Every structure is written in structure tokens, then in C-alpha cells.
């Protein structure tokens, strides 16, 4: 029954081969093997299942079994024919997978860089489970090694996401050695879970861009996440998961570089006069502000006694004329300290 349901095209010449083998006991010729492979490729391209095709060959063997004194020769020929047919089928399948992977990679590159026509990207996005008419957010994770789509870490994160959320129209991929996750903007629990799993798997850091609408919105959210990771390296943010929405003050501060450089020079420049240079006192300011201006916590971060930390803060006050403990002075010093991180001062001259 199965053999009759499939086109006879894929069994073309098979009965004649069986009859010839039954008479002569020979093996298949090279042309016959190549012909079976070609038919296997055609069957794969037409979308037929390999299991049904193999059953069709076995049914045709039963129906067309020749009168012979060497049944083992016939069985060997059937094995050779089915093996060649399956080889062609699998070769076509591998080619189709490679083409699909190439199309997916091209789409991802276009999506994350905005290099293609937005209308065309929107049309292609449906094929990969995205509806770009809605807002999307992008999570990006990086670790101590490069990642691609076949890396075990990528597969681990992917398995965790789909086990918990199933198919929520999310896209998990890799780009420039990082793991990327694109999710609908109203599913922040998904992208947060991605960031948590990716951080745990990579031992690195993850960042989440804000949701934005349209194909261009994906690019914007992706760039925000990348900028957050870059900013974390520059200013020493060690949180495992960064949110671009929480870091908006940094791009604002860095927008006027000359004004920021002027503030750093004027507010922190006198620290250069300290014994040992500006770095130890600037490190003290960073720890003090990162600890919420709690002296005991800042001292622990620096492995100092509270008394030693207080001495350093007093030294900063005497050199700069600005008191870190004074709320009226604190904003200027903290902004200047952030600017120093952004501009890599005092390692670089301003």
C-alpha cells in the first residue's frame, strides 16, 4: 500500500535491477548506484519521508522478487540500492539544512545591523518566528570564550529557554562570538530569564536593551545591549545582568566630552599632587560612591579600616576643596568620578 501511495518515479528501474541480479547474480553498476542516489535526492527535495521510501523499496522487492537460486545475491543488491538511495536522500537533506542555516544567518546579520530594506526584513522575519510590527527587546551575553550556534553553552541556554517558555516567538542565535536573544517587548520575563541562564552558563556578563518597535527597533535594542556591555568594561560595572534603561545617565554624561573632561580636570586634577598619584584616591571615591557613601562598606571593598578610609576622604577634601561626605559637594565629585571612568583618567591625559 505504501509503495502505491508514492510516485513510481522513485522506484524507476528498481524491478529491472532485481530481475537482472536474479539472472546473473551481479552487483549494481556504478551508473545504477548513481541513479539510485539521484532518485534519493529528488525524493528528499519533494518532501517525502525516508521511512516511507524505504518501505516502498521493500514492498517492491517482495512483489518483484525474481526466480533465482541465489537469494543472498538479490538481498545484497537490494541493500546496495537502498543504501545508495538513502545516501542521496541524506545528501539532499544536508544541503537543504546548509541552505536554511545560510538563509537564517543572512537574516540575522541583516536584522541586527539594519542593512536590508525594512519591509523585506519584516517579511522574512515571519519565517523565523518574529512579528516585527510589535516591539522587541534584545538580550546579549558574552563570556570568556567565543560562542556560535553549535557551542554547548548556546545549546544549554537554548534548552533552558524552550523548556520553560516553549515557542514564545523568540529568536536565539549568536553574533560576533556572543549569544543573542530577541523576544517580544511585552515578555520581559523571557529576556530576563535568558540573561540569568546565559550569565550562569558563560560566567561572563549579560545586558538587556530596551524594547523598541519595528525592524529598526531590534537594531536599536541590540546596540543598547552592546553599549551596556562596553560601558561595564569601561567604568567597572560588575553586575551579572545590565539593563540599558538603568544606564541612560552614562551616555548623557559622555555626550559632551570636552565639558566632561573640563569637569574631571578641575574637580579631580588636584589629586595628582597626592603621594602615590591620583589613582588610590580616585579608587577610594569609586568605592565610596559605589557603596552608597557608607564608609564601613566602602572600607571592606578596599580592604581598609574605616579609619584609613576616613583619612583618605579627608585627604581628598583638602586637595580638591570638595568634601565627599557633604551632600552639596557630593554630586560634583561623583559626576567627575564617573567622567574619569568614561574618559579613562588619569591613565589618559585630558
Automatic annotation (TrEMBL):
Transmembrane segments: none annotated. This is Helix-turn-helix domain-containing protein. Residues 281-336 form the PucR C-terminal helix-turn-helix domain. Gene3D superfamilies: PucR C-terminal helix-turn-helix domain. Belongs to the CdaR family. It comes from Streptomyces genisteinicus. Signal peptide: none annotated. Residues 113-231 form the CdaR GGDEF-like domain. InterPro entries: CdaR-like_regulators, CdaR_GGDEF, PucR_C-HTH_dom, PucR_C-HTH_sf.
Amino acid at each position: 500500500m505504501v509503495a502505491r501511495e508514492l510516485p513510481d518515479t522513485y522506484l524507476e528501474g528498481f524491478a529491472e535491477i532485481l530481475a537482472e541480479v536474479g539472472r546473473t547474480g551481479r552487483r549494481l553498476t556504478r551508473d545504477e548506484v548513481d541513479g539510485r542516489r539521484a532518485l534519493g535526492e529528488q525524493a528528499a527535495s519533494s518532501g517525502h519521508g525516508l521511512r516511507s521510501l524505504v518501505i516502498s523499496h521493500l514492498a517492491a522487492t517482495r512483489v518483484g522478487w525474481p526466480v533465482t537460486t541465489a537469494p543472498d545475491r538479490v538481498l545484497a543488491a537490494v541493500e546496495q540500492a537502498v543504501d545508495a538511495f538513502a545516501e542521496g536522500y541524506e545528501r539532499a537533506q544536508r544541503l537543504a539544512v546548509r541552505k536554511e542555516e545560510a538563509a537564517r544567518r543572512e537574516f540575522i546579520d541583516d536584522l541586527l545591523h539594519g542593512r536590508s530594506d525594512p519591509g523585506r526584513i519584516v517579511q522574512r522575519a515571519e519565517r523565523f518566528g518574529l512579528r516585527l510590527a510589535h516591539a522587541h527587546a534584545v538580550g546579549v551575553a558574552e563570556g570568556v570564550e567565543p560562542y556560535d550556534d553549535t557551542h554547548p553553552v548556546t545549546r544549554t541556554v537554548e534548552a533552558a529557554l524552550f523548556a520553560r517558555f516553549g515557542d514564545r516567538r523568540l529568536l536565539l542565535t549568536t553574533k560576533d562570538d556572543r549569544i543573542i536573544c530577541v523576544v517580544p517587548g511585552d515578555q520581559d520575563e523571557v529576556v530576563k530569564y535568558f540573561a540569568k541562564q546565559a550569565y550562569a552558563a558563560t560566567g561572563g556578563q549579560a545586558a538587556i536593551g530596551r524594547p523598541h518597535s519595528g525592524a529598526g527597533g531590534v537594531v536599536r535594542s541590540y546596540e543598547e545591549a552592546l553599549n551596556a556591555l562596553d560601558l561595564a568594561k569601561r567604568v567597572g560595572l560588575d553586575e551579572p545582568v545590565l539593563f540599558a534603561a538603568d544606564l541612560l545617565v552614562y551616555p548623557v554624561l559622555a555626550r559632551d566630552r570636552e565639558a566632561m573632561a573640563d569637569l574631571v580636570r578641575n574637580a579631580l586634577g588636584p589629586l595628582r599632587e597626592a603621594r602615590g598619584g591620583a589613582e588610590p584616591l580616585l579608587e577610594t571615591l569609586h568605592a565610596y560612591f559605589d557603596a552608597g557613601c557608607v564608609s564601613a562598606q566602602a572600607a571592606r571593598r578596599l580592604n581598609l579600616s574605616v579609619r584609613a578610609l576616613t583619612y583618605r576622604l579627608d585627604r581628598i577634601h583638602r586637595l580638591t576643596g570638595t568634601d565627599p561626605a557633604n551632600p552639596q559637594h557630593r554630586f560634583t565629585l561623583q559626576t567627575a568620578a564617573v567622567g574619569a571612568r568614561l574618559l579613562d583618567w588619569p591613565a589618559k591625559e585630558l
